[in-house]
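Exercise 7 asks you to align residues with tokens for two separate proteins.
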Amino acid sequence: MASPATSLSPPTQPSTPSSQPQAQQQQRALLLTTASALGISAHSFIHSYTLASSLFAVTIATPGGGPLHFPETDANSRRWLDDFLAKPAAVPVAVESLDLTLFAALLIPGGAGTITDLPHNAAVAHLAMAFDRDKKLICAVGLGVSVLCASALLGNKGADWQFAGRCMTAPSNVELARTTLLAEQPLLLEDFLRDNGACYSAAKSDSVHVVIDNNLITAQNDASTLSAVQNLILLGNNSRRERKAAA
């Protein structure tokens, strides 16, 4: 599998309903991310947004419409973010206020803050279940996979988890132990996924590893963002061709 690209050049025009005249003809994708001060991975967010914008009109949402935080950036990503965050498209909408029927795909980039607020939000739990029930594309990267756990964390104990039996990946305990994140984790995704009936797999730490199970795409870590979103685009294009053929 190809290694993630290093280029962080911004798109000429971010593909959002407000910035492209043809956006009404595009399918929409929801980019769901954290409003926690622990923040979003700049690498994962930039690749997620720029790649998804090649096919979808992208809307960003956070719990309560809270602002985006990028605690760790390099010079290239900082330039991109400074330009992007000045645009109206960078202002998140509240996940609690979304009309889910408008969106064809859900994309969750990685980041340390992702696991602190998203899996404990009732609107996020409903969103993840609704997208999967309707067989819409879901692409979750790294700690963003925690969104899939929300329904189980907020639901009745003993109830069946909607994603039980599905094949997926997420950061491994070994991978987290190599960072400062392990002791701070409110949820160990590898343990949760195994304990709740998912078919979990992982590669070596920091390796690119993506698992596709029908409409569900999961990536082990932020380094796997590029490969994961490329597969989202591929499946989205296939779905669009099938709809055109059936029309």
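Second protein for Exercise 7:
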Amino acid sequence: MAFRNVFVDIVISFLLILTTVFFAQYFVDFSITPFEDAAMLMRYASHFSEGHGIVWNIGEAPVDGATDFLFMVVVGLLARAGFSVESVVRAVGFSAHLMTILVIYMTFRRIHGSGIYSATLSSLYFAIGPGLFFVAAYFGTPFFTLAVCMTWMQAMTVIAQPDSAVKRVAFSVLSLLMGLIRPEGVFLAAFMLLSLITILGFEKSKPTVLAFLLIYALLGGAYFFWRWHYFGYPLPNPFYKKGGGLLYPQSLQDSVKYVRRLCLPFMPVFLPGICCKEMCKKTIALLIPIIGFTSIWILLSKEMNFGGRFQYPILPVVLLAWYPLAKELPLEFVLFKRLRSKAGMRRLLVLIAFVLFMGILHYQYRCSQRITYHKDGRYNMAMILQEYHKKGYTIATTEAGLLPLYSQWRAVDAWGLNDQWITHNQGITEEYLLKNSPQILMWHEDRSPGISHETPRDLEWLKMLETLRNYAHKHHYELAASFGELSQKTHIYYVSKNFPDSQEIIKKIRSVDYFWYQSGRKSTNFALNRQK
């Protein structure tokens, strides 16, 4: 019987992988260019793979703008073997997605002791979710999600076997790795530990707590002080820029929205547990990492949260948490137990289960299809500028993804996500621009009617645009292009007249087929219309 179960699990695991590959081939567009935020990390990984360290511009001081630290290091190391950064990012992300599917399935079968139905449903739900779309957009999100899933799985094993020293250490090490991949992994690890303590009680969980604190204090502490010394600041640069010590209620609202959308079919399982005295403690414990992780995003602004990618890693946590509660529900609801004992009702329940199975998967498919991306003119522009990358030119831009990555120009991130000076000096200044003497100024301007600019973030953005615009006018830059679908929302390119390739670059900028990133449609150069 044991051999038969193993054989069945191997076959189903193979079919899960096959289904995922089929879904990826026919339902996910892998022909797109990297998304802006992903392109930033790829620039760091490219420089790291070439032996320049973790730097934004080659030859300059290190900057921790790549918040997916361990993912960036892994990509950089693999790229040293001769593979392109693009192919490595996709390969690592896709492999991580497949591995997470298998971890979910085997956790259900080996730790939860579930049947095939529940394990397959949860694994398929994850398989056709947003993960593949994040892989297509070149994000490292699936890599972090794998770490989250493995850590939560290991927490489940500690709950099942609290006396195992090996499992305690494994949970603690995986928790640390989760924090090394992304900083919010530290918070999630703490929430998982708190969940474990709530279920086991402090006495039984004390050895795990000690192992956790020891590993974080020694290995985590060593890493923390190394990065502080290497980068000059204790936290990643984007956290200073996107956090700033403020609270962001809109970010929390978005976080709740994305978590609800990701996990909706499984959330009702938690409701009876809250109401039932015998299950209340366990339910609350399993909700701690879910609610905690959802809530921490109030600390950061919501920019760059493509498709809810910041909240996506909580999905395997929910998928691994619902079954331990659901399998106890028949014991609590006598009516369901009685119905299940009747032959005719069993057939009806099987039919209901099948309909639910397909309905849940269809829901996930529809949610995944909401994640869209299009051709992006910034990539076309970068490829034009790449011809001049050996001349030491500089671009100062608010769009610090595709343009810096593919142009290979020295770049000033005008918003400051990848520039420590700008982040720690309340924004870009005319003096800082003069010091860097950019050949091109580029920014994203949105003057759409009805948009309010009242929040501190909006005012900060407007101040930055004013600085760039004033600098362009004061130093006699020429307006080369203002690309957009509407004249109120455009990408603006100014080119200095004070370098040899100026006029040639202006002509090439104006000749680019520029596609608007939100629709994929060809943009109009409104700067030419003004000149006419």
